[in-house]
Amino acid sequence: MNSLKSIYHSRLGANFFCFKLKYNHLETSSTCCHYSDTKQPSKEKPPHVPVMKHEVIENAGLNNQSIFLDMTFGAGGHTKSILDKYPGSIVYCLDRDPVAHRMACDLETVYPGRVVPLLGKFSELPALLKSHGTRQNYFDAVLFDFGCSSMQFDEGGRGFSLSKDGPLDMRMDGNRLPQNPTAADVLATADEHDLYKILKVYGEEKRAKKIARAVVEARYLFTPLQTTKELADLISCVLVNETRSDKLDRHAHVATKTFQALRIFVNNELNEINYGVLLAQRYLKIGGRLITICFHSLEDLIVKRHITGNMSDNSINVLPLQYVDNSRWHDEESIKEFTSSNWEPLHKHVLLPSDYEVERNPRSRSAKMRAAVRIS
Fold it and tell me: Which of 74, 183, 249, 257 could bridge across to 170 with cysteines, CB 3.0–4.6 Å?
């Protein structure tokens, strides 16, 4: 596929994983439609348990007249809490997943006039807000809850889960954007070096080279990988003598980081996060609050560098500020540009979920929350 080659070039070239990628202009075109390509999650249990819900409300600084932007609506757990706590508030609900968008539309009937469902990625937000007559400096708080939702992991047909067999899809947009490659497309067409870079950088997988070679050999000796079970079994065979554990010291599958890497690459998540935080600055009022919940270091690194002002040309710098070359001379104007930030953090360190929350919801174990105020 020629289109896949251009995607590899844009995401795996010298400007790798968004550190040097310039964001697009704010008037990106998009449309908001209803789709029904994926089954809705079961109603027998909550499709997603919101992480650090009380901390989000506490740090958002909202009131009954607030206008809130939930950039990752999911199943609406955070949004419902805000709507209930502040009866006069209005929430704009963005999500790229058609299933989540339908849930936001359902929520709109429960809270008439207070919920605005938006279907699209972070990069589609400007056009979506423009269609609603929304201007910049409009919102009182913006929330990002990055990563996959439980309802995506729990639906085997979406291809995110290691525990449920299904097609290697992993597109958060589902079939809303059918031209976008699936994880199976990536595994079937990427060369060994590109696969190695995807797994090493996006998954921080220490055995990336070994896994990439095995995928390519399986592709030519047998057949391209098509299901999550086929990929998980292949990696289990390649890393047969390895054992891994998660942050709760529970057994972790050796393919976990590979699945994470493919998901991030397929959905272009890091570039979307970088652009999303830039948009948050544009659409927040001065004094408005930015709340982010990250689940791995790559997401948190982008947010942290935005908040600390370690930016260059609208992208985060590769090196932290302490490793900047101090032997070079800079004029006062340049120094101010290097060290200035549009944000004032509310806390010195990240906030973590309580032990009680982790016990009730183990998927919150990796969460890190940051909160900041827009000051310029």
Answer: 183
CA triple 367-370-371, angle to 5 deg: 140
DSSP state of 185: H
Residues ≥6 apart with Cβ < 8 Å to 351: 52, 55, 59, 368, 369, 370, 371
Other residues' Cβ atoms within 10 Å of the Cβ of residue 64: 9
Each residue of 146-172: pLDDT tens digit? 988 777 877 888 888 888 899 999 999
What is the C-alpha to C-alpha distance for residues 374 and 372, in angstroms, rounded to an integer? Answer: 7
Give the tokens for residue 96. 């790229």
Quick: pLDDT tens for 274-328: 999 999 999 999 999 999 999 999 999 999 999 998 887 888 887 776 666 656 6
Q: pTM of the predicted model, to two decimals?
A: 0.85
Collapsing DSSP states into helix, strand and coil, what is residue 14? coil
